[in-house]
Design brief:
Blueprint: E1 2-6, H1 10-21, E2 25-30, H2 33-39, E3 45-48, H3 54-57, E4 67-70, H4 76-88, E5 94-97, H5 101-108, E6 114-116, H6 118-132, E7 136-140, E8 145-151, H7 166-170, E9 173-184, E10 190-197, E11 211-217, H8 218-227
Parallel strand pairs: 1-2, 1-4, 2-3, 4-5, 5-6
Antiparallel strand pairs: 7-8, 8-11, 9-10, 9-11
Length: about 230
């Protein structure tokens, strides 16, 4: 994937670092020379430009990448102006970071592809971890439904898969169960290997190292958390 990241604060810089590490082609831009300097060795190209200036923005290969990410968060005016300019220039795939719901509501008016609220996601993740006592990863399908991945709570250990009653009690559908097994590599060293088992095997006994992947409404997942 080829992408442009505009705004190299903490969020934009980490985004550039992670995407580059995964092998994506990353072009980064910021008006702050020191921020550009910090990412120039990890990105394919880095530009010091004022993205609020339409002429300067045209320096970037906007029509030659898969997605343009506006990672500006703290400066609402700059974020909105850059998104507006990108729309004016005919950029199709735009992701933009929103600092709060006011910021989000303004960005929604531009009908961009994706609005990112990293602070909200981090806060929700922390709350879910505190409720369950284990870390929970979430993939949001829409405003109501999500896919959840979490380690088996202590209350579930020793139960069979069909004894969890997640759908009957919480309308959460189990779509995968990941189990760990100890295996030997070719040198004879033992290590943990993760396998995904058939979710129709209802007699599977849940172990503390197992990971559940479920699908359902966020409100129903909260009910599960409270029941634990």
């Amino acid at each position: 994937m080829k992408c442009i990241i505009i705004g190299l604060g903490t969020y934009g810089r980490v985004l550039a670092d992670e995407m580059s590490a995964l092998g994506h082609e990353v072009i980064a831009a910021d008006s702050d020379a020191s921020r550009v300097e910090r990412v120039k060795d990890i990105c394919d190209a880095a530009f010091q430009i004022d993205a609020c200036d339409e002429l300067a923005l045209n320096v970037l290969p906007l029509k030659k990448v898969d997605v343009t990410i506006v990672a500006i968060g703290s400066n609402l005016g700059a974020s909105v102006r850059v998104v507006a300019l990108l729309k004016k220039l005919g950029v199709e795939h735009i992701y933009a970071r929103a600092n709060d719901y006011v910021h989000k509501s303004i960005l929604q008016a531009f009908d961009i592809e994706k609005i990112l609220i990293p602070e909200e996601r981090a806060a929700r993740s922390l709350v879910r971890q505190m409720e369950l006592g284990v870390k929970t990863d979430l993939f949001r399908v829409d405003d109501t439904y999500c896919v959840y991945k979490f380690h088996i709570p202590e209350k579930f250990v020793g139960l069979r898969a069909n004894e969890l009653h997640l759908y009957e009690n919480f309308r959460l559908k189990i779509i995968a169960i990941r189990k760990s097994e100890r295996v030997l590599n070719f040198t004879g060293i033992e290590y943990n290997n993760s396998i995904v088992v058939n979710t129709t095997e209802n007699d599977l006994i849940m172990e503390a190292s197992d990971v559940l992947v479920c699908y359902g409404k966020e409100s129903d997942f909260r009910k599960l958390c409270r029941s634990l």
